[in-house]
Amino acid sequence: MSGETALALHDVRVTRGCGDGRLELVHGIDLAVAAGAVCGVVGETGAGKTLTMRAVLGLLPRGLESSGAIELGGQRVDLATPAIARRALLGRELALVPQNPAAMLDPVVRVGDQLVEGVVRRRMSTPAEARSRALELLSQVGFRDPERIVRLHPHQLSGGMSQRVGIAMALVPRPRVLIVDEPTSALDAHLRIEILSLIRTIARAERTAVVLVSHDLGLVARFCDTVAVLYAGTIVESGPAAAVIERPRHPYAVALRAVAPRLTATRRARLTTIPGVPPTPDSIGAGCPFAPRCPRVEPLCRELRPALAGPPQQPAACHVVNRAARSRAPRSTGEAHAGRR
User: Which of the four CATH numbers 3.40.50.2300, 3.20.20.150, 3.40.50.300, 3.40.50.2000 does domain 5-262+281-328 have?
Assistant: First the structure.
């Protein structure tokens, strides 16, 4: 993989309400994803993962507004512009595989017609080219007889088959970025691994950047190149997947790792949880949003929200860990000489 950035988020925010009743739900997300790479966006339910991606796609629910900007293939897009003006990107440069792909399929239209409809209607491809591309993708996602699949109606597909069709449909227009939202929540463990393996393989082959939204740290560890850990609408740690998973810095990332289910666990193994509950947007004070649940909390944590800081390759938003990192950092030669005088 090269270092070419396919998608960059700059200070992405989501707010609800207006005037004095305005409430920020997502707080200044910065994120970059390289072409052909898989970036995991992980956190508990309500962390702001899906909301951030919906802001990027211009698909926020009514009553919510976005701000900030994204860069997509060198083009900067202001998220404060009306969503309808940005939706031309959806299905061209950006594509979405939702949590339940079966719900986006028209029950009375054959699978093949739905796969090619979007690109043909937008004149991105001829019907013959679109059909050839659809058959190729169906084969790539594991269908041995794609000619039979295109003749089926959605009700004739199993859950795993619907997931595969959803991935193929998103990839037909050759998007620069694929956003995959909790893609395997309804599948068993075997299908989950199979589907994510397919997504990663196709991403490499097509040079498509993938943003994998998930609450499952185990899956993220296995399939992602980089990770951004979200809590209460903000990134609390980011970096290479191996580093964040194996050596997490932020106490919340540490807690997520501790409660992640393990494939080697016995059937009777007891699942652990993080004490406390995530805050609601209107209950977050001036300090760190994780402070009420954090085992390392200090008075400063309740008074001042920490910035994302520390090692550039793995920054964390935590006063305690960053202070400890600074104290361990070697002093410069000049500082060492000054200390000996």
Answer: 3.40.50.300
